[in-house]
Amino acid sequence: MQTEHIKSLFLKYKEPDLNHRYITNKHLAPLLENMSYKLHVETIGNSVLNNPIHGIKIGCGDKRILMWSQMHGNESTTTKALFDLLNTLLSGDSSVNHILNNCTLYIIPILSPDGAQAYTRINANQVDLNRDAQELTQPESNVLRDAFNAFKPHYCYNLHGQRTIFSVGKTNKPATVSFLAPAQDEACTITPNRKVAMEVIGVMNKVLQEVIPNQVGVYDDAFNINCVGDTFQSENTPTILFEAGHYHNDYGREETRRFIYMAYIASLDYISKNDVSGVNYESYLKIPENEKCFLDIIIKNAKIIRGENEIITDIGIQYQEKLIDKKVHFIPKVERIENLDTFYAHKIIQANKRTVFNLKGELLEVDNEIDFVMIDNEKISLLVK
Fold first, then answer.
1. In a shared domain, residues 351 and 274
2. Is the pLDDT of residue 307 over 90?
3. CATH code of the domain covering residue 272
4. What is the pLDDT of residues 221-274, one digit of tens each?
5. Do 55 and 194 fall within a single domain?
6. Hey, which residues are catalytic here?
7. Which of 23, 113, 160, 234 could cross-link with 76 by S-S, CB 3.0 to 4.6 Å?
8. H helix intervals, the chain
9. Which parts pass through the membrane (predicted)?
10. What confidence tier does 376 reach under pLDDT thresholds 50, 70, 90?
11. CB of 318 closer than 8 Å to CB of 295
12. What's the predicted TM-score (pTM) here?
């Protein structure tokens, strides 16, 4: 499918009722009710706090694909894109009918509804579900495991979001979308089913390079059997980790949502049309590995007074995501005061060797939360616009 056509599908079928970063069961309920007349929606279990976990089945093909999102409740971009995908598949658009005819998708849109409601990575028992694949101590972990066992997927899509700190290699390019074909043993052997996952990732990368060149990365594949992706891969099911990252000025992740949707469509189109063998896996190996080279803001060449000394250095600001009145706010926090020549930033402020203060006229310190700075007499906002 041509990239321009995928872009046009997104514009037609983007779900208008899902926006920004805070997505919970409450937001999905009316959408699922509307869709229940067209596809199979069921409650497949409950969370620690007894919130329902939903499963959605769509398609009638032989190729089975299991997709789950918001295993970490504060990673919602892939969930928004799932509903854009569902709208597309339910539209009757002739250009996607082959996906439904050749594939059956089973989608868990929010695996951690308690984490989604609280906007946290962990569940209500303070457990990271992505480290519970072996012990299965949490009800949400067992819901996913049961779905995997019952559906017997040929592919797994493990859908996540990543912080703004990640770069594509050591470059001034944010990792807007990242992937991983997880390892299935300590040696990180490139096994036949990893090759299948790699081949599909290569297809998605090719499409994304047309819209976000040099902004796609892969994660280090160090093996951890406690992670869900590594566990499913070790059971010989090709598994793909998706990570929705930062795009310029897109803290609400609406642009990244589009790129994730494009990856969904490109991969499902490819799987539906091909018997993926893994023979074309090598393009995956050319995708750069992510590094942690970004801060949200760097104030360059700031004058800092330390006792009787004046030094010229940099101030690094990282946003802390906080849920306030059911909306995600980005709180600027001083992360580093040091030479930051080895870092990049999503925004650069030049202090030009002037002193930087807070609004009370005090010097900045690491861990300060601060919305504005004064550079001489100039008041500068650090807030997300």
1. no
2. no
3. 3.40.630.10
4. 999 999 999 999 999 999 999 999 999 999 999 999 999 999 999 999 999 999
5. yes
6. 243
7. 23
8. 3-13, 25-35, 77-90, 97-102, 113-118, 139-151, 192-209, 228-234, 254-273
9. none
10. confident
11. yes
12. 0.97
Are 247 and 344 in the same domain? no
Among 255, 273, 291, residue at a domain's last position: 291
> Three-state SS for 178?
strand
Residues 257 and 342 in one domain: no
Instruction: Find, among 253, 370, 374, the residue nearest to 317 by Cα.
Output: 370
Residues with Cβ < 8 Å from 343, sequence gap 6 or more? 293, 294, 295, 298, 316
User: For residues 53 and 46, what is the distance between their CA atoms, to the nearest angstrom?
Assistant: 5
pLDDT in tens, 34-61: 998 899 999 999 999 999 999 999 999 9
User: In terms of domains, do 349 and 219 share one?
Assistant: no
Domain boundary among the residues 250, 272, 291 is at 291
Q: Are strands 155-161 and 103-108 parallel, antiparallel or unpaired?
A: unpaired
Alpha-carbon span 53 to 108, nearest angstrom:
7
Nearest to 84 by CA among 133, 130, 16, 34: 16
Q: Does 216 share its domain with 326?
A: no
What's the pLDDT score for residue 358? 93
